[in-house]
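F.,

This is the one I mentioned.
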């Protein structure tokens, strides 16, 4: 009897540990709080977005100039909003609106991240954006969030920076000799969801990306239902450093369509 109880407890502890480990690996967010002013972009203002389950998200905003769309910026899992002010500044310089979301556990937002919660938060935030065309910009992890929103019919256009097909495929590409599917609860199956994305689409991916292989970006591109889509492969670039002159030229050209 005691042995059975210990086995149940050890199995439960292992499951709990693996869940915590998985969350920490997929969502290693920087919780450091900073205002836009402190981070170096005083043209943005901080607002708070209340979730349906009582959490509070930090959101940075800059209003669009007349005739310009708003970019709903969905970051990757590295760093926080404070680390992306250069990007926000270049968008604001050209008159675009920016709404930048800090996920649960990131940049001062409360709560614990998981796939369902991040999807619900981003969906609610996107639905609250009115008045201008809305462009979904997903970066790395944020591409999976953006694809889910776009597949649900949200957003007028979609920009994906280094998209992956699914978390399981991503793990398999990094650990080809291991079988870890049964331990993964955070699936983010973008390859399946993107088949419902019909909005104009721009994908940017580094040719030498060692974290998210460029072939994953091509698979997302091929599977997207969008009739108006473009794939930009940046030579000699990895997972970061993708905001090259070439990228910005393609991005601003894409954004000028609204």
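My design for it:
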């Amino acid at each position: 009897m005691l042995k059975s109880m210990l086995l149940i407890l050890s199995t439960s502890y292992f499951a709990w540990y693996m869940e915590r480990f998985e969350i920490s690996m997929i969502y290693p967010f920087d919780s450091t709080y900073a205002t836009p002013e402190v981070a170096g972009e005083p043209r943005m203002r901080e607002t708070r977005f209340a979730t349906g389950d009582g959490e509070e998200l930090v959101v940075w905003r800059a209003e669009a100039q007349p005739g310009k769309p708003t970019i709903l910026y969905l970051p990757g899992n590295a760093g926080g909003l404070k680390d992306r002010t250069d990007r926000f500044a270049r968008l604001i310089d050209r008159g675009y609106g920016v709404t930048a979301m800090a996920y649960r556990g990131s940049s001062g937002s409360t709560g614990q991240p998981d796939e369902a919660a991040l999807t619900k938060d981003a969906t609610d935030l996107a639905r609250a954006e009115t008045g201008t065309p809305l462009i979904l910009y997903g970066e790395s992890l944020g591409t999976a969030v953006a694809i889910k929103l776009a597949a649900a019919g949200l957003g007028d256009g979609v920009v994906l920076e280094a998209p992956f097909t699914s978390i399981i495929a991503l793990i398999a590409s990094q650990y080809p000799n291991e079988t870890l599917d049964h331990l993964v609860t955070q699936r983010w199956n973008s390859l399946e969801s993107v088949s419902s994305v019909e909005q104009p689409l721009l994908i940017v991916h580094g040719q030498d990306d060692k974290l998210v292989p460029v072939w994953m970006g091509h698979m997302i591109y091929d599977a997207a239902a969008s009739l108006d889509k473009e794939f930009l492969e940046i030579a000699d670039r990895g997972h970061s450093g993708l905001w090259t002159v070439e990228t910005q030229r393609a991005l601003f050209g894409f954004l000028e369509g609204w």
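The CA atoms of residues 71 and 135 lie 5 Å apart.

Talk soon.
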